[in-house]
């Protein structure tokens, strides 16, 4: 039986740059900078001969791409893997086809279903804030503005398929509001 070989687009959807970083034990820092959600030292051997000292590689986990402000390396998860392992495209496709979970490719949720799932959660979050801002008692409260700002940042950094993450944000908002007695 031959090895399964997935297409470039299938692998880009299934292989996340953050997963590759975790597999290589790269120290990631979570950030909010434009579309970028994480940064780390550039791990590529061609960047300062592998002796990078600063966190110049930025990752956009939402769109699953990266850019190194030091060496200019950029693009998708396949390019990241090629540079990380110092291999060519064909080898990267073969290796990634072997490590990808077939479930991630075969059972990729329909984007519309995910949008519906996240939409209802985000709608509930929006409804909570709308009711708080409409209440004159809370409208100008500093904690409400801060909670709103932090919530926006967390929502912006969610992966497109991360319904669990959206539910976690909703749960934290409800817990915080309950804790302060609102």
List the helices and strands and how they pair.
Elements: H1 8-14, H2 17-23, E1 29-33, E2 36-40, E3 57-60, E4 65-68, E5 74-75, H3 77-85, H4 89-99, H5 102-106, H6 111-134, H7 142-156, H8 163-179
Antiparallel strand pairs: 1-2, 2-3, 3-4, 4-5
Helix pairs in contact: 3-4, 6-8
Descriptive account of the structure:
A hairpin with a 5-residue loop joins strand 4 and strand 5. The longest helix is centred in the last third of the chain and has 24 residues, at 111-134. The chain folds into two domains: 8-106, DNA Primase, Chain A (Alpha-Beta Complex), CATH 3.90.580; 111-179, no CATH class. Helix 3 packs across helix 4 and helix 6 (111-134) packs parallel to helix 8 (163-179). It has helices at 8-14, 17-23, 77-85, 89-99, 102-106, 111-134, 142-156, 163-179; strands at 29-33, 36-40, 57-60, 65-68, 74-75. A five-stranded antiparallel β-sheet has the order 1-2-3-4-5, with helices on one face. With 182 residues, it is an alpha+beta fold. It is built from eight helices and five strands.
């Amino acid at each position: 039986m031959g090895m399964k070989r997935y297409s470039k687009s299938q692998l880009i959807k299934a292989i996340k740059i953050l997963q590759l970083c975790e597999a290589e034990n790269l120290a990631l820092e979570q950030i909010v900078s434009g579309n970028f959600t994480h940064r780390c030292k550039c791990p590529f051997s061609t960047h300062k001969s592998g002796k990078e000292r600063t966190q110049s590689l930025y990752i956009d986990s939402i769109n699953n791409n990266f850019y190194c402000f030091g060496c200019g390396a950029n693009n998708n998860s396949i390019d990241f893997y090629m540079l990380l392992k110092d291999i060519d495209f064909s080898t990267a496709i073969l290796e990634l086809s072997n490590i990808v979970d077939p479930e991630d490719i075969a059972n990729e949720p329909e984007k519309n279903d995910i949008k519906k799932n996240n939409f209802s959660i985000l709608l509930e979050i929006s409804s909570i804030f709308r009711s708080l801002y409409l209440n004159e008692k809370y409208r100008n409260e500093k904690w409400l503005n801060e909670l709103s700002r932090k919530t926006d940042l967390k929502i912006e950094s969610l992966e497109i398929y991360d319904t669990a993450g959206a539910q976690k944000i909703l749960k934290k908002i409800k817990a915080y509001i309950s804790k302060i007695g609102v």
